[in-house]
Design a protein that fits this description.
The chain is α+β, with helices and mostly antiparallel strands and about 170 residues long. The protein has one helix and seven strands. A four-stranded antiparallel sheet has the order 4-5-6-7, with no helix packed on it. The protein has a three-stranded antiparallel sheet with strand order 1-2-3, with no helix packed on it.
């Protein structure tokens, strides 16, 4: 049993040495003149070339093709993208606002609209939003004139009506 373990260990050591030697070319024996000792030459054996770094960052060369790692959802001149929106009311889309209240003053009706994030704005007829303007304000409705951003559509503007809603979503 001990002889089997020793022979197995010896075989493993020989295999490891053979694998290590397989990576390097065998060195050619240098002839030694009689009466002289073998001296080392000034040129050491060349080191093997380093393997490519597996953690190196990847560089994509598109060569006229689109980058497959860039999202197709937020591209081009999309008016809804948050990157090119102005601050305040001019940066809101008509679909994002909800009419919270309408009051009447000396000059006419004024509406309170709420944008995303519970930000509330006071608006008048003629105020501009990202994709349209406020066309009219009546006693219970705000009428928007929305710009249509579809090149195939014959209609360039459409009218959107939003009524005053209560907190539970029903009509007041």
């Amino acid at each position: 049993m001990i002889t089997t373990a020793r022979s197995f260990t010896a075989a493993c050591v020989l295999c490891a040495a053979a694998i290590a030697a397989a990576g390097q070319p065998p060195a050619a024996p240098q002839p030694v003149e009689p009466g002289k000792t073998k001296a080392t030459t000034g040129s050491p054996t060349p080191a093997p070339a380093p393997a490519s770094d597996p953690v190196a960052p990847f560089s994509y060369d598109p060569q006229g093709r689109r980058d497959p790692f860039v999202s197709l959802l937020a591209r081009g001149s999309d008016p809804g993208s948050a990157a090119n929106r102005p601050a305040g009311l001019p940066g809101l889309l008509i679909a994002e606002v909800a009419v919270k209240g309408i009051v009447r003053d000396r000059s006419g009706f004024i509406a309170m609209v709420q944008g995303p994030g519970t930000k509330t704005f006071i608006v008048h007829s003629g105020d501009k939003l990202m994709d349209g303007t406020i066309k009219a304000i009546t006693a219970d409705t705000v009428v928007f004139s929305q710009d249509v951003n579809d090149p195939l559509s014959m209609v360039k503007q459409k009218e959107v009506r939003k009524t005053v809603r209560s907190a539970d979503g029903g009509r007041e």
